[in-house]
Amino acid sequence: MGGFRSEDIEFFGPLTLDQLAERIRYTSEAIFWDITKAILECPDGRENAATIDNLLRQMFDLSPRN
Q: pTM of the predicted model, to two decimals?
């Protein structure tokens, strides 16, 4: 089976998340790894997950300059 399926979005997030990660990494690898580290170190829980989701949603709308 394997691969991404649209019904798995609950577990993997929106497809545009990959594009956002690529854009951040291309713009600044240091910032990319700082964000990655902060997310990975964030304790589990719905509240923290919601905070990260909110942050990523806001980042979707930023230009590379921002």
A: 0.67
